[in-house]
Batch of 4 targets.
Target 1
Amino acid sequence: MIIPMSRVRVLGPRGQLDPVLTALQDTGLVHLTEPRSVELLQPVTPSEAEARRARQLRALVREVDGLPFASKPDAARGSSALGDARSETREFARWARSAGRARRALARLDRSIHERELERAELARYEQFVAAFRGLLPNGGGRMQSYHLILRGDDAQAPARLRTALAGVLGEHFALETADLPSGERAALLLVPSTEAARIERLLAQSGVHELPLPAGVESGTLRTALPALAQRRDALDHELAGLAQQRHELLAAEEPELMRARAAAQDRLLELGAREQAGITPRSFVVEGWVPTAAKDRLTRALAKQFGAEIVAEEVSQEEWRGEEAPVVLTNPRLFRPFETLTRMLPLPRYGSIDPTPFMAVFFPMFFGLIMGDAGYGLALAVLAGVLHARSRSGSPVRAVAEILGPCAAFAIAFGIGFGELFGDLGRRWFGMRPLVLDREKALLPFLGLAVAIGFVHVVLGLVLGVINASRRHPRQAVGRGAALAMVLFVAVALLAGLQVLPRSFFTPAVIALLLAFPVMVIAEGIIAPIEFLSTLSNMLSYARIMALGTASVMMAVVANRLAGSFGGVVVGVLFGLLFHLVNFALGIFAPTIHGLRLHYVEFFGKFYSPGGQQYHPLGHWRPSQSEQSLSAKGTP
Amino acid sequence: MNAFWIVLAAAAAISIPALATGWAQSRIGPAVAASLAEKPELSTTAILLVAIPETMAILGFVVAVLILYRGT
């Protein structure tokens, strides 16, 4: 349901505006809104100092957000307990300096780590090179000169071209070996007589082939003689990298608690500065207006009276002065239904004063899901999945909500599975002697179709009833039109049932006469568009046939999986193939009922009564994790 | 011969709407993907838009079942 709200107005001397806003922030109850336009009221324009302060606070938030702390920014909550304005300014300045110092120190450490990682990667290339030509590398000091070359891996002809060019210069007096490296490049070792070194270097330069230079510190020797030094350097780099990572970890751990507190306090002050812009002032007084849950109104007035006495007046604005659409919306539902608020919130919130569809969704969505899945085995697997998701998620997280929605869906799937006598398709019947208690979805397609359309009829009629209730609160004429449409749907149903002799045939004529009488009432009350909407209502009921279609497809897939498993020669291959097919069917069995269950609600059911356009209740309070930068800017933070 | 036409009619009842659904979704899908890239908050609308043409295939299936049941 949508909880009742009251509009309150707080008045007092202008000098008390900031303390009152701080008090309101402490209560965390008031969703601020701009006061009703009174000629004397002026908006609060932030001074140059306040605007500068806001910029500094935002800079502090950005600075802290740029630091890679392990915990998210939601680790700390805002607090107003920072002392007077002067000590608060000092504190924020100190935090800003700390954040800057931490950022610079971290940048130095990251630079050092990056340089060492680059050097280490370079060493790894030499290791690959040496591994490729171990045994061929000359010891140095002989008559042969070695060149270590790296060729592009994607140019397959490069070694052949190089070999041809070398043969043109040296004849047969050279050795060229190539090997593919794990990096995708191609390593080449070239051995030539020392006397030809100058010519070869010119040739290599003209060919655009680059020699792999030896790392700093070992350039003077050959690669073979440099190997021990390289290994030593690699070990030293590993040691240095471990030390730098430790320093980085310690720096972040030392700065994190204080800077996260700083971030929360800065966010808090930004919220308060934003709230000032919602106040109206005169030369001597201020007015603040906002929305509070009616049940919490007395708590607010008591808190203000306790802190400010008679100096501040908090009064309720009479309902004649505001329209229901202006009030923010708070959904509140029993614990069992609450996870389904997530599905309601996927659409714009319902308008204040209209009907919250969450309880209906909590009943019908799992039911539709269960009817489509309708298999005790798949239901059990879904229950296990829901349990795992529940155990591995935090309270209030989207994953937890999904787990809590899947739970009832699994329960309905198991219940309908028992009713349809299905356990992984027809395995339950073949192995455990299960029998359909309600209907056999494999064979009784027409009864299943009738059941689906009957459920659609009940669901749509419920939507129409809610539509009449919704309209009666604001537009009585519209309520009459919707009531007439509802009556016509019922008369059509009675006439059809009488025609099919489910009801006595004597009902047919009165139902048709009533239908003809209700038609003009509907058109007069709702206009010429009403007949079209009436026809679309009837087609909406047929849309529920998808429950039967998807349910039948689900059971057929499961049966096919079992038959395919049995048709393979080997037991193991058959079982594996059957499991794979069931897995695919299970995935489809989650996806299809979810999409189509949502569609049946959002299009067929909500279309009859839902009034979107409600605004979320955002009371002024201390900064909380869920309040993003976006919501801060949306509130007009200077 | 009669059975042939019944089966053919049932096949047409499911296959033509299924092709139409596929064509509609092929047009809706890219448009929805482009919209989501710019406005991720439209995901609910996107799901509905993609799911709406499936009604044709589903009703085609229902009609096919009815044809088979009535004809045999």
Target 2
Amino acid sequence: MKKILLFFILLTAVSCDIIEYDGETRLVIQGQTVTPANAPIPGTSVKITIYKGLNETSDVISYGESDASGNFQLLIPAPKNENNFIRVELITPSSANQIKTFSSIMRKDFSVYKLDFGQIKIYNENELTQLTVVQNHVNPNNSISDIRITSGLQSEDVVEFNPVPPPDPTLWETYFKVLNNQMITLSYKVTDHSAAVPVTTEYHDSIRIDTDPTIIYTIQY
Amino acid sequence: MKAITLFFAILGFGVVQSQETPKEKAFFLEPLFRVYGIVPIPFGDNYLAQANDAKISAGVSMSMFEYHDFRLTAGFDHIYYDVNDVKFAGTVDHSRSNAVYGIVSYEIPVVKSLTLQPYLGGGWSEINFMKQDNILLNSNNSSVDDQQGAHFRVGFYTDYRIDKIFSFFAGVNYVQAKYAINTAPEFVSFYDHAQTVQVNFGIKVGYSKKEKYLRK
């Protein structure tokens, strides 16, 4: 009897880790991979993975390649749990190109069972610079938020559809992938909590991007 | 063993019934079983035809009585498919089409040992989706629920009697199934139906209208 009970407990534990799909619901994921000059990139490998949650069980539910026009279209059975994350990874035939990933996609991001990325520009890694923004917390009364690039071209390796906020906003680094040889504007908000009513100030810093593969920019707040 | 004894008892009862029943009697208790192979030929622009390779499969059917040459039969078809297009199926390795059906057939004697039985029927259908990693105790596994539906079928059998009990048979039928689906409008018709021509061949066990054949 104990063995039977143990078996069912084990079975239940294992079942909890299963990613379940609805065979009566099919989601369409499509897009077109192109170069910065809008030339199609055929043969781009597309992989779709479902995650139960961050750092949890995953399952590759589909894969394929873009056609001669750079178009790809994959249909997958929908995860039964609408909070499961969908991740789409694009790897072009040229290893010099960036690997593009669309992450933390959820059912709510689909419209009539379809998610259309449209044209996805894939850049050569040599054309990109990784900008690391270091937040240096010098004034304990201040907090920082909403760090983003408001002008200039960027092409992130990982596009988060539903970003999870970092667990510790202090001592945090933010990463951007931006194109070389341009001026960008980095915007952010600093809130001063020393007064009874917090005061928020928005800053816009101009940063020159050359051809270095990486650049570090520090915000003192 | 009990099941076998019961089977032959029912069969024997049927034989006695048939022998003792006058020809004019419309109702005959005649248990009849078919076990058959299926060569499925899916066609059309739909999931089973376009994203799968059909395999030789199997089915069974059973009928208990005949009334005015009409026969009511219940059966089960299990058709196996290998997925050949991940684009439409996802990482599903096999699809299985199951059907539970009822048919009404009409028996037409052709010659002494040959009969033709056209039939019409329908029933429940489903598609099972089997993923390779769907293994018990696999910590990284996943499962896909079935797709439910219903179907209509029309076809015929030709039975060739080899003795009082056994017959070989072959037949052809057309099955049109309709399945539940939620997807983008342009793909609804791809996933919501299946069309299959099935070539069947197998063995029929049972006693049916012995007198009719002997008098011909």
Target 3
Amino acid sequence: MELRQKLEILADAAKYDASCASSGAGRKDSRGSAGVGSTGGAGICHSYAPDGRCISLLKVLLTNACLYDCHYCINRRSSNVRRAQFTPAEVVQLTLDFYKRNYIEGLFLSSGIIRSADYTMELVIEVARQLREDHQFRGYIHLKTIPEASPALIERAGHYADRISINIELPTQAGLAKLAPEKNLARTQAAMGHIRSKIDERRAEARPSAEPQPPPFATGQSTQMLVGADDSNDAVILRRADTLYGNYRLRRVYYSGFSPIPEPSALLPVKPPPLVREHRLYQADWLLRFYGFKVDEIVSEAVPDLDLQLDPKLAWALRNRATFPVDINRGPRELLLRVPGLGVRNVERILTARRHTRLRLADLIRLRVPMKKVLPFILAADHSPVRLGLDADSLRARFLPPPQQVELDFSAPPPPVGDITSVHTGEL
Amino acid sequence: MRTVIIQPGFDSWRTRARELLGQRMHPDELLWSDAAQEPGLFDPANETVSAGPVPTVPAAFLDLARRVAVHRDARRWDLLYRVLWRLTHGGQPNLLAIASDREVRQLHQWERAVGRDIHKMHAFLRFRQVGHDASTGREQFVAWFEPEHQIVRLAAGFFVRRFAGLDWSILTPQECAHWDGVALHYTPGVSRSVAPEGDALDDLWRTYYRSIFNPARLKVRAMQAEMPRKYWKNLPEARLIAGLVAESGDRVERMLQAPARPARPAPKNSYLRSLRELNEPPPAAGDAP
């Protein structure tokens, strides 16, 4: 099979993995070597596809042949999708060729499982080894690992990669048993625990910081959870994510709305993707990681799902009106972070600025704070929200979105060719 | 009112600003311009360093000024001097901490525009291979990019760190940067016709772009927010966008209509058998019914 065909099949097979980050790697670069590559700054998105996703890495599978039968996955053994397999040398050459043209930040390599976990893992590692050792490649490498692979192989993968990840896929063992019978939650978490301990070990080792050399082990791990494939509610998903952040110190949990795939399974009929739900989960995830929220403040036994119409911070504020208004000239950081419309950066700016001046509404406007959103919740030198009625029942109605969200509705017909611009009125 | 004409660059502005500050020249008495706006009016004789006392300013201001200096807005010299004045003679040494101040805000906006321009250059510039150096064996690449601001020198270090093992030239209308494995040097800007049109790998890259796109998640606006149309003409993959958007509806429809596949029995494989045993341990002796 031609290389072009393999790339077509094996990139298509990899696109359901939402992870794209190329940030958070150790600082290393190509100076003084005959090779190419650098990491350590913020990751760079070298392109964007019309699905709005960033293209940062060459994201491919080594092979899409697979022994497993995960019913949400196009590559499961019961699917009739066309199969292909790269040789390690082919992936190495593609990565270098793409990298040298500045198309990508590096490689994201995953694979269907063939023969056994160890056999597959060795092939994946061989690609990373050739890149690092034979070609002095210092770009970003993200390797997907298999929880059942031997610990020694996971350590070797981590030795070459900047990031390694294991997809948890579904938040409960019951969901996995039904839809991904070969996978197991306990084994996945055990493997994450092992990776965490290796990352911690590396961090503990004192190293000269100025050297642009690859670190001895990956600097982070991440995972992906499917949303809408099983019947887990948002509380179950967020509690699982919270456990993963807390116990295994993951850098990121990616939420991937289950979307139609070619080759649907009889066990899991395709349905429209819940893109809004995925978006709300990401917002809730941000609240957990950067805003000091606890899961139980965002979802509860009584209301286990996120409000699809309002962002979770605003929804929380409306449920906890007694907390407000917060005085932007006096309120502590923790409370400012809870004000709908105030992001982490603006909270820091407010805290710094108010040491030297009394902040008024005009200041917030200049900081591009969304005024409609914050006004009911704050006090400023020249503003008190009383007249806006923090207690009024109409407050929720004030924030409800306009009835239509065209881009989130995949069933809406796409614009005809030549008319793309009409979708973007206001931007041109 | 005094007209101050400088070379369009941070160093020239800094030299004059120090001197004027030493003379306690108030910003309202000055009219700043640069040789790019007023060719012929720049007088090198004015480029003298005065010996007056040099006021100290926060290092953060100098970093900010260095980046703002490459912004194309002609008002930047005046505004930089106004903020400098307020920091030194205006009794507001903490001014930069007030991000909501009108003038500080404007400088930050310009700085952010410059930062974004640099970031987009790092992201969207595409190298094209033009050959090998016969004597060193090093691969040679050339790129074309059209920055909005005068950022070539601020952006070039990244490419040195990343592509140290290649010989490359980055061509822009303003200025060009060249790396030979040893040193970086700069030459005047050129026109686009000098740059190579494409690369043999562009087709394979487009194959990747087409294949990684998921038609079931069309979000054209999100794409355009990050990759505005002005960049498309220099991106080899952008020519695919209209077609991918147009056909996505039909592709999703076919997925929704596709008949469901029944689950196939597991093949005979010792690894799968071992997994099954891990997942469902055989009942211990004595438990069997």
Target 4
Amino acid sequence: MQRYILRRLLFLPPLLLGVSALTFALIHLAPGDPLSTQFGLNPRGMEPQTVERLRAQLGLNEPLPVQYLRYLGSLLRGDMGRSLATRTPVSQEIWARFPATLELAIATQALVLLVAIPLGVLSAVKRGSLVDALCSGGALLGVSMPSFWFGIMLMLLFAQNLGWLPSAGRGDGTLAGALKALILPAVTLGAGLMGLVARVTRSQLLEVLSQDHVRTAHAKGLAPRWVLVRHGVRNALIPVVTILGMQAASLLGGAVIVETVFAWPGIGRLAVNAIWRRDYPVIMGTVLVFSAMFVLMNLGVDILYTLIDPRIRYD
Amino acid sequence: MIENQRRPYPPSSLWLDVWRQVRRNRLAVLGLVILGALVLTAVAAPLLAPCDPHEMNLSAALQPPGSPGEPGTPGRILGSDELGRDNLSRLIYGSRISLQVGLIVVSIAGLVGVTLGTVSGYYGGAIDDGIMRLVDVVLAFPFLVLAIAVVAVVGPSLTNMMIVLGGVSWASYARLVRGVVLGLREEDYVLAARVLGASDWRIIRRHILPNCLGVVIVQATFGVANGILAASGLSFLGLGAQPPEAEWGAMLSAAKPYLRQRPLMSIAPGVAIMATVLAINLVGDALRDALDPRLRS
């Protein structure tokens, strides 16, 4: 177990190396002079000697592999360059918006776990009932809806027509205000994932409930509720964890869109604004952070796996 | 004797079987009907649309649904947008872009992914290692985030978006196909073909690829749905279709400032996207059930 985690951790650096190589390549694919795309300088208005001196100073004349190593070195020190628009360090910009994105992600996950799993269990237990039909239908709609549209529709209903919830921002500073502001973005971001998780929970539980050990548990007189919880749900949740890990990517991608719809001041919105301003260092910084988060989330899921499923032994 | 016995099943082929299974699934039939209607709409857009989707008329901007057109022009069943263009016509023409985007994205991803996956699984060794590490790195990026970054660098346009979406989604095809090929490579009929002197290319073409077709088709069906969703999201962010293109995601982002005044302008393109994606997902579900031998009845 510890050896497995250690092995997975050893796999992390090469993966992050690949990720950084890709962002580095992207920065260099950006059209325009690297002096302007990377440092926000305007070489056209300068003397040729000044341009040459700056290039030499900033290391732009060196071969690409050397530049990549330097880029990697600064990444390791947490230096991702400066924003072309605000001149603040990219790491600082990202760090300032990290809590908002984290908050949204946690709220979404909580929503998925607290709503989708019980719904999946309910529709498996009451198979063929109206509840089941409604859940299946809702799940199918959930994965087929564009999240930004669903968000706009929620905004139309709950913010504009009913006036119950704010349509943008992170609230008025009070706890109640913050929670109210969180509801619409979290529901929007979680809709697709909730549909998927409810569907998988249902089909897995149905499969588990038809197995022999469940019949044995019933036969020995265990209360039906405990059979469901201990023998059914516990076993059915293993694939659900995989789904949650696999969908981490769409959650992060969705965050970019949902944060834009609700003017949520997170990393996704930072990325979109940076794209509109052609602020390449910020774009690459956000991509790097998102990818690192994704890799770490997957690692977390793999480790969680070994904890909930004793059959899995990695060695 | 044997010839007098009634055969339990009429003669069949794999695809006839699949068709029978899909036909029995009511939801899949519904999906096929919606999809058929969409394809028809896309093909016959010039005949169905009451107006030119790009024709602007600033004096008739943001008209409510059902308003009569100016004398000599058709009425605005869904109203007009902020530049006075007919919303219904734009919606109809939007089906062309969405279906086209979905198909092109999947074609790029499928072509690259199946090729690399087959080579990887069939030849193994260092080639396999190299390709699979590349797959790991591509899959280490959150799909949409990577697409956004690349589009931001190469410049937003419909064509660039399709290439990028295809270019970042091939990896899952490669991993899937590699897994199947790995198993097929060890089959006796492949060995037999090799003993008979068949070339690698012939074995891959005649014995490996046809057997991968099932999983690839299922994956590709969901790929079209996801491609359409992702493309509409990117266009919504302004990274895909550019004005004046009538694309559903871009129409939504243009409609957002008028949400209070003209809610239908925001509702209609979303319903169109959802109906398209839902229809494809329904068909995909049925195809998966029909093509997976473990689920066959």
